[in-house]
């Protein structure tokens, strides 16, 4: 066969084609790399507000080595970013790393965003925790009569604040505080992980909270609050590590949260004894939805015991409790005053419980000796329906106050499977009034049986609360620093 011959002219053309093809391929490769870089440098998240300005904590000297204190870096960054409050707001990005910090305060129209591999480590240097006055509706600290340490993430008199991330972590390193609390070495009440006061339009979402020194999430004297996608983990014997505690707040939604703690998973509050009565700010219009709770010594949802400013219109649904002391618990006492009314719970599943339902008017623990012994709480309009449970020791313990019965209690379409070694008396009821329908084992006589035809007797409101109208926006962070 005659060998193939290519003319010099054709060789030149082929070389040009090869060069052009290589250049195009290289350009496409670089473009693809740029696209990948843009994707990797762009973070998207859902929020009540998006921001016009962005910065990273590293822009302000932050060091994520787990040893260097970043308290000053966080506060300088937030103070600097506060200048954009009226110019589209700002967001502070916390990248991967371990960011040791003490207490710092947020600003309005601001987003704190934690990368999926970012960990805020709470400092164990008490000098990095400022001391604050007691809350006016409490009159004293809960651990000690004096004041309290400021929370790790704090804010007051703010609007439009978002604390979120790609499931980034806030680690309270609580063992230091728990040990000193048990030893009686703390002069002030232990700090919370997140506390926002006198604020509105708040979002706390998509985070993991570990080992809080005290309560985890505490909005107080605030309104229009969304808490969702939060995982809270603390040892089940850790003291007072409540999950989420809305306190004298209005229009709140808590949803899609998983909580393992040493205290109540959600505790609804509104002030303590005479201080709460005088302050007079109730918690109302509260939604709790799709909550999973594990707390062997406390409640899935607790109302009180600090309820002296009142609690009303609480709607809880699609709740799962596992190895938890009680499903729904109302805690109050003579001297509390206030009220708990219009409470609605439905579609709750409980596994391995001490009590399914517990209402007590004998919960002591007063702020001081100055409470009014004539201040009796009003408990009425308590509705539980469409629930199942297994492994329960006592179906219900309902204890009102002599001369002040708890009224309008309604329990319907509830099946409670008792544990093999359950108490012989499944229901104990004193000083309560109400009705029941299709409840097994049969409810106590003080809850008059309405028969199986009344399985829908207990109300659940059909209307939406204002917080349901809040729409989240698709926001982004592109690492375009100042």
Can you give keywords for this protein?
single chain; 482 residues; mainly beta; 21-stranded parallel sheet; four-stranded parallel sheet; 4 helices; globular; disordered N terminus; PbH1; glycosidase; hydrolase; Polygalacturonase; cell wall
Summarize the structure.
This protein is mostly beta strands. It is 12% helix and 45% strand.
Q: How would you characterize this protein structure?
A:
This protein has 482 residues and is mostly beta strands. It is 12% helix and 45% strand. The chain has a 21-stranded parallel β-sheet that branches. A four-stranded parallel β-sheet has the order 6-11-14-16. A two-stranded antiparallel sheet has the order 1-29. It is globular. It starts with 7 loop residues before the first helix and ends in a 5-residue tail after the last strand. The model is unreliable at 1-40 (pLDDT under 50).
């Amino acid at each position: 066969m005659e060998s193939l011959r290519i003319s010099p002219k054709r060789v030149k053309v082929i070389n040009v084609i090869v060069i052009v093809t290589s250049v195009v391929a290289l350009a496409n490769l670089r473009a693809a790399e740029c696209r990948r870089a843009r994707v990797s440098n762009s973070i998207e998240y859902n929020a009540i507000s998006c921001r016009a300005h962005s910065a990273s904590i590293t822009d302000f000297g932050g060091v994520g080595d787990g040893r260097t204190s970043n308290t000053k870096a966080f506060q300088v960054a937030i103070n600097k970013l506060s200048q954009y409050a009226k110019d589209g707001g700002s967001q502070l990005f916390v990248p991967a790393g371990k960011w040791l910090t003490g207490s710092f305060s947020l600003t309005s129209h601001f987003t704190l965003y934690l990368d999926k591999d970012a960990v805020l480590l709470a400092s164990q240097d008490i000098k990095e925790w400022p001391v604050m006055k007691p809350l006016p509706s409490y009159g004293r600290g809960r651990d000690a009569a004096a004041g309290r340490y400021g929370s790790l993430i704090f804010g007051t008199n703010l609007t439009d604040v978002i604390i979120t991330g790609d499931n980034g972590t806030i680690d309270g390193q609580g063992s230091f505080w728990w040990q000193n609390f048990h030893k009686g070495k703390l002069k002030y009440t232990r700090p919370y992980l997140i506390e926002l006061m006198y604020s509105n339009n708040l979002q706390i979402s998509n985070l993991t909270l570990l080992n809080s020194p005290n309560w985890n999430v505490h909005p107080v004297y605030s309104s229009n609050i969304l808490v969702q996608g939060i995982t809270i983990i603390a040892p089940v014997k850790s003291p007072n590590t409540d999950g989420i505690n809305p306190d004298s707040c209005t229009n709140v939604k808590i949803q899609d949260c998983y909580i393992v703690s040493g205290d109540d998973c959600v505790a609804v509050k509104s002030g303590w004894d005479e201080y709460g009565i005088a302050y007079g700010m109730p918690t109302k219009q509260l939604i709790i939805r799709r909550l999973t709770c594990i707390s062997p010594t406390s409640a899935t949802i607790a109302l009180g015991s600090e309820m002296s400013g009142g609690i009303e219109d609480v709607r809880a649904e699609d709740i799962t409790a596992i190895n938890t002391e009680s499903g729904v618990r109302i805690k109050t006492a003579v001297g509390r005053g206030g009220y708990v009314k219009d409470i609605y719970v439905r579609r709750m599943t409980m596994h391995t419980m001490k009590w399914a339902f517990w209402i007590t008017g004998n919960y002591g623990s007063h702020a001081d000796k100055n409470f009014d012994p004539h201040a009796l709480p009003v408990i009425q309009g308590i509705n539980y329906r469409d629930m199942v449970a297994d492994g329960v020791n006592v179906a219900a313990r309902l204890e009102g106050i002599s001369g002040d019965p708890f009224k309008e209690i309604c329990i319907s379409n509830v099946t409670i499977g008792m544990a093999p070694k359950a108490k012989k008396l499944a229901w104990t009821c004193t000083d309560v009034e109400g009705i029941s329908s299709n409840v097994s084992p049969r409810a106590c006589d003080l809850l008059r049986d309405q028969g199986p035809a009344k399985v829908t007797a207990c109300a659940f409101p059909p209307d939406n609360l204002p917080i349901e109208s809040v729409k989240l926006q698709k926001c982004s962070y592109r690492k375009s620093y100042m």
